[in-house]
Design a protein that fits this description.
five-stranded parallel beta sheet; eight-stranded mixed beta sheet; 17 helices; alpha/beta
Length: 486
C-alpha cells in the first residue's frame, strides 16, 4: 500500500512551509521508506514558493515539487488534478497548504485503509470557517508538531474553531455513508480517496471558477459511482489562520453561482435545490423526499381524477408533479412526470416506458417558457418549505401555460405519510433505540425532526392549507401577467 499526499499551492509560501513542517514530523519514516510520497503543485506562484520548498528539503528530501505556469486553466482543481495524475499511491490525500496535521496523521490513514480500502475519508478540520480578522486566534500561537494534540483539545472546546460538519460526524458515529447526501460534506481541504476511483471520474472539474463547490462536485461524482464515505476525527487537520484573498460576501456569491452550475451539469433533484439550502441542510430535505409516501398523503375521489384527466386529454404536452402511485398515473394521460426519489424513478421508468420520467422537483428546470400546455401539482407541494413552495410555483407558471393544483379536501395528518425505505421486521431493540431520536439533536441549528429511519433527521413537513396555496398560485399568476404587460 502506498499513499500520495497532494498539496496545491499559490502564493502562500510561508503558510505552505509551516504545514510541511508537520508532515516532516510524522511518527514513522513514511516518506523516507517511500510508502508515502509528498507532492506540492505550485500553480504559478510569484511569491518565491520554490525558496520555501528548498528550505524544507533537509527534512523532506524526497518531496516532489511541481511548478506549472499560470494560465487560463489555473486554479485549485487544475493543481489537484496535476498532482493526482502524477501520484504513484493507491490512495491520494488532498491537503490544502497550511493544514497542520498531528504526528499520527499518515499512520492513521494507513490503518483506516488496511481495514476498509474502497472508501472516501473526510478528515475533521479545525478553523475552516474562522475569520482571523474578527476572531481571537491566540490559542494557536506557539503551536508546534509536539504540542498540536494539546492545542486540538483546546480548539475542540471553542465553537468558532470546530468543523461545521462535526455534529454529523458524531451523530452518525462516522458512518456518514448512511446520510441521504454524504457528498455534501466532501470538503477537499483534507480528504483521502482511492486514486483509481478519483481518476476514473476525471478528477476535479476545472470549469468551476471562483470559490467553492468544485470539491462537492468531486465528492458527488464519487458517490454516484458507488464509492462509500466515512469521516475520521483522529487524522484531523488544523487550518492555520490566514487572510483570505476574497471577502465572505464574495465567497458566498461565488459559492451560490457554482451551486447553480453544478445543477446545470447534473439536472437532478439531488442538485436542484442545492443552491437554496446553504450549510449542510440539503440532506435533510432529500431525507424527507426519500421517506415521503405520497399515496398515504392524499386520497382523491374518482370525480376529482376524472376532472383532471379530462384536462390532460386535451393537451399533448403535460407535466405531473408529486406522485408515487402507478394507479394515479394511469388515470392521467400525461407526457412527463417529475418524481421525488430514485425508487419511484426506477419504478415509473419500468412501468411507463413511453412517458418521460425525470428525477426533479421542477423548481430549476432550464426549460423554455410555456414548454408544457398543462402542469398538475399534487399535495406534495403542501409539505415543502414555504420559500421552496413559492419558487416552485413561480417556475411552473413560467414553463407551463396552465397550472392545476390537485389537492385532497379536508384535514390531514401529514406525518402519517412517512415511512422508512425498506423498513421490514425491525427488532424491538432497534425500535427502542429509535425512540431516543424523536427530535433533532440540540447541536443542529435547523428545525429538524426525526426521520422514520433510525438515527436520521429530516426537514419538517411544512403543511399548507388549501386556500393558502390557491391564493399563492393566483398571486404568482397575477405577477406573471403584470410582468408580461410591462
Amino acid at each position: 500500500m502506498k499513499l500520495s499526499i497532494v498539496i496545491p499551492a499559490y502564493n502562500c509560501g510561508p503558510l505552505l512551509h509551516k504545514g510541511l513542517q508537520y508532515l516532516a514530523r510524522q511518527d514513522a519514516e513514511w516518506f523516507q521508506s517511500e510508502q508515502a510520497e509528498l507532492i506540492v503543485v505550485d500553480d504559478g506562484s510569484s511569491d518565491g514558493t520554490s525558496f520555501y520548498i528548498e528550505q524544507i528539503r533537509s527534512v523532506l528530501p524526497k518531496l516532489r515539487y511541481m511548478y506549472r505556469p499560470r494560465d487560463e486553466y489555473s486554479g485549485r482543481s487544475c493543481a489537484r488534478n496535476t498532482g493526482l495524475r502524477e501520484a504513484a499511491g493507491e490512495y491520494v490525500c488532498f491537503l490544502d497548504a497550511g493544514m497542520l496535521v498531528p504526528q499520527n496523521f499518515v499512520s492513521r490513514i494507513f490503518t483506516l485503509y488496511e481495514k476498509s480500502p474502497a472508501v472516501v475519508t473526510l478528515h475533521s478540520m479545525y478553523g475552516i470557517d474562522l475569520d482571523p480578522a474578527v476572531t481571537d486566534t491566540s490559542v494557536v500561537e506557539g503551536i508546534t508538531p509536539d504540542n498540536i494534540g494539546e492545542i486540538a483539545v483546546k480548539l475542540n472546546k471553542l465553537p468558532v474553531w470546530k468543523d461545521r460538519r462535526e455534529p454529523f460526524f458524531l451523530y452518525m458515529r462516522d458512518d456518514i455513508q448512511q446520510l441521504a447526501l454524504p457528498w455534501e460534506l466532501g470538503y477537499s481541504g483534507a480528504i483521502t480517496v482511492p486514486a483509481r476511483a478519483a481518476l476514473d471520474i476525471g478528477g476535479f472539474d476545472e470549469s468551476y471558477k471562483g470559490w467553492g463547490v468544485e470539491d462537492i462536485d468531486f465528492a458527488y461524482r464519487l458517490h454516484r459511482e458507488g464509492v462509500n464515505f466515512r469521516s475520521d476525527r483522529q487524522a484531523y487537520a488544523i487550518h492555520y489562520p490566514h487572510e483570505s484573498a476574497s471577502s465572505g460576501d464574495r465567497q458566498a456569491f461565488s459559492d451560490y453561482q457554482n451551486r447553480i452550475q453544478m445543477h446545470t451539469k447534473f439536472k437532478e433533484l439531488e442538485t436542484e435545490l442545492f443552491p437554496e439550502y446553504q450549510g449542510h441542510f440539503y440532506g435533510a430535505f432529500i431525507e424527507k423526499m426519500n421517506t415521503l409516501q405520497l399515496s398515504d398523503l392524499a386520497a382523491y375521489s374518482a370525480e376529482e381524477l376524472d376532472k383532471v384527466s379530462a384536462c390532460t386529454a386535451l393537451s399533448s404536452h403535460t407535466l405531473l408533479i408529486g406522485v408515487d402511485d402507478p394507479e394515479l398515473v394511469r388515470h392521467m394521460d400525461v407526457s412527463h412526470i417529475y418524481v421525488h426519489n430514485r425508487p419511484t424513478l426506477e419504478l415509473f421508468r419500468a412501468e411507463f416506458p413511453s412517458r418521460v420520467i425525470e428525477y426533479s422537483l421542477g423548481l430549476r428546470t432550464f426549460l423554455p417558457a410555456n414548454t408544457f400546455e398543462l402542469c398538475i401539482v399534487t399535495d406534495m407541494i403542501r409539505v415543502l418549505h414555504p420559500e421552496v413552495r413559492a419558487k416552485l410555483l413561480k417556475e411552473l407558471t413560467r414553463i407551463s401555460r396552465e397550472v392545476i393544483l390537485l389537492l385532497s379536501a379536508g384535514t390531514c395528518a401529514p406525518e402519517m405519510a412517512l415511512s422508512a425505505p425498506n423498513k421490514t421486521g425491525q427488532s424491538e431493540q432497534k425500535e427502542a433505540a429509535h425512540e431516543h431520536t424523536q427530535t433533532a439533536p440540540a447541536f443542529l441549528e435547523f428545525d429538524l425532526v426525526r426521520s422514520p429511519r433510525i438515527r436520521h433527521v429530516m426537514e419538517p413537513l411544512f403543511w399548507c392549507e388549501e386556500d393558502e396555496l390557491h391564493d399563492l398560485l393566483e398571486r404568482i399568476k397575477r405577477e406573471k401577467a403584470s410582468d408580461s404587460i410591462a
